[in-house]
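Progress report, Aim 2. The chain analyzed during this reporting quarter is listed below.
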Amino acid sequence: MKKSQFLHIVVIVATFALLPSPHAHADLCNVKVVTDATPDYTDMGSLIHSATDNWPDTSNKVWAIWYWNIFARRVAVPMAFHGRELRDPIRQFNDYGYAACSTMAGVNCTLFAAMGLPVKFWDICNHTVMEAEFDGKYHMIDSDLCGLYTLCDGHTLAGVDEIGQEGACAASNWKVEPGHIAKYHCLSSSSPNGYMIACEGRPMSDLADDFNPRGLKLRTTHAGWDFSYRYILNLRPNEIYTRSYQRLDAGSTNAVLQPRTKVYRADPACYVPNYDLEAPKTAARVLYDPAYPGEEGGRNLRGNGLRTYTPDLRAEAFPLSAWLVDNVMASTAGVIPANAGKPGSVIFCVEGANVITSLKICAALTRKTSADQIAIAVSTDNGMNWKEIYTADSAGPQSIEKQLIAEVNGAYAVLVRVSLMGQAVAANAMLQSIRFEAVTQLNNLNQPQLRFGRNTVYVGAGEQTESIVFNPDFSTTNSKASALVEQNILRTNDPAIHCASTKEECYVVYKIDAPTDVTRVTYGAGMGRRSGHIDFRHSFDGGKTWVQSYSFTNNNPPFDVHYETVTNVPSGTRSVLFKYAMTSSAEYYTFGIGGVRMEVNHKVAVSSGGPVEVTFNWSERQKDYKLVPRSHTQLIDKLPMTYTIDVGGVDHPVVDSLTINLKGARGDLKCGYSDGKDVGGEKWVGKWATYGKNLALGKPYTVSAPSSTQWSAGDPDGKKLTDGIVGSNHSGGLSYRNGPLWGATQKPEIVVDLGEAQKCAAFRIHLEGAPWWNPMKGEVKDQVEVLTSLDGQTFTSVGFFDFELRWKDLPVNAYVSVGGGVTAYNYFLAAPAPVTARYIKYKLTPARALGVTEVQVLDSYQFEPFDLRIALPDGKDRSQFTDYPLKRVPTLVYKRVLKIMGPDGGKLVSELP
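Predicted structure tokens for the chain:
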């Protein structure tokens, strides 16, 4: 750093430290709104508590985390934040949801390590997964391709090195095959040797190849994890935050064509762009919006928030509205300099809670003469650097409306500084009004949801302190400008900092100034060293003395993420220095420091505790699939508070938005339901489906009409429909190759011969049709009737399959997510009473091209109530960072053997070399 640059920064920071302190700008801090329909994604502790605390043992808790994580994102090119794959669960789940296998493996390592379980991070063939240790062994958990696999006992979760081994059991009819567990013992597949349900519908044979024992690579250098973030929502008077669960830019005239799809358009003001990490390194990597369009399929996972704030500039309210003031005061007409001929400024803080994509600033100002000065600047690094976005160049009233995108995109808080100078008369430069409109990006899958029936809503507030958070971006040279001091630092294309020379210690110092007294600081980073050490140090006296809070000296992988929380802050402290120091006896490429995060908590001078107004807007699904909008507004006059919202219709609703503000920010609101009706109802509880023996497995059948061979469809050997392999949930492309395909003019009949009269309790049929027909919208107009017979001559109708599916009726273990898209399904029909029959006829009346991959006849079934057991907040503060030491695991993979569980008492099949 040049001396002139260093002095410039010191002058800026020193000026900040001397500014007079108004009251704190926020009135209510760390607000959370959660429901009992989805976990609490506020912070790591809250997420783990809400998802797992009501489950009795570790295996149930692991299942719960896996369950919620498979619905918390879409498979996409992973979001890159500061040049690093975003693996922090809270930021990923709240703001983005774009995740690939390595992302979700890192997220799971983070969560399970936070639960106290040792973890491993694996690269396998064309895939990345992780393991967690409990109940005496390591178990593989895959939240990307959404797989859980058991050993042949049907309940013990398998480890990575067991899934791809050769093996056999009754499930494969004792056929010895590589990848036996992957093919026949996946809990989340359509059937043994079928297709994965909750991802893009990959065949289990592909997954068996992925777990080939020859391609396993335990990543001993890291666990791919990060746990630095928490969701921070603070509210002030005249501030309103509306989280829309849909895109706000769907019809925007400012939308631009996205380079990856060539058809999808999005408004840059409404998304944080991602780098095309899949592009070859030699190609130019472009920025784009990964939130592809769609209604209930594809990657439709981006919503947008709109956070408006209108500071009250009246004399009695101005101290509560400003972040910092310097030589300005509030007059009856507006904010003016305190002295003529001397510059002054007021700084406002605009917060996002979710990540900010753009900021509109609307202001009315007055500049009487050309000698007077007015300017507006913004900062996203807590005032270390400013970018001027407006300078008055004419005299008279100034009405401005500025929309900022590049200047603020990706930040969580923006400081806005209005500088004023009245040359001859102080009031000649005046700020009369100002308003901020921040657009934020949401992962719409994980916002507080509502379900059909009764919902419990919790509204509370955590510790009444405000927070300043800073994440330096080491992926660009811009991070250098945000540092107060640097010594011996080398920056490369790697998103981390390293020592430029091994001869001396290298370090970087950051400074955070708060407008009120600091109460606590938390800071840390991801680290890796082959030699030397990394130290965390802080100073509360401007660098005169330093306190070392942590030293990373273990140079053996796997490398770690660590955070320190300091609460013994001297009274009156308003400035904190953070130093990250390291030494090394090796070259820079032996890792360094990355993913740095610093948080400073400071006092709130005035905290009213509310009241708060909360409004949910949703659309209720009707029998004819139409949507009827409703809303509910609740006045929260005491925190914390729980209340109920009853949702009608016939299915889970579409939640449109959630608005929260301090009372009065939206005027006089009518509380209660928008239509004045409480529809009542009980809390929705899911069901767990257990299906009995498939009597049709391997049985012969006849069809009355020949199959089309289009799209590789067909069944020339007459075996596909009872081979036990159920097709994917997704229609289109090569999915039709799994069975016969008939046209709309044909009316085929499938007759299965069970070989003898048997008692039949239920029937299933897996249909594939036009990929744009959605059974969740009543668009499937085909008909299939089931008839039974003892002699093959006289048939009696059991009934028709219901192809008008409802989300609330799907079993929990169907693993189909609301919004995930279903264009093919294994439909279920229960007989009114068990019927004895030998011949089962499926009479099809297609309304389109209709494919069938499997027909099933069940001797029994059971649907049991299944509560997902979300735990609402219990008053305990789980928001503070905790150190999750990475358990060291062996660098060598131990041999495991898998035995055939056959009639011969167990025969050795294979041993992992």
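The first strand starts at residue 31 and ends at 35. The chain has four domains: 44-218, 246-251+267-446, 465-603, 688-866. These observations will guide the mutagenesis work planned for the next reporting period.
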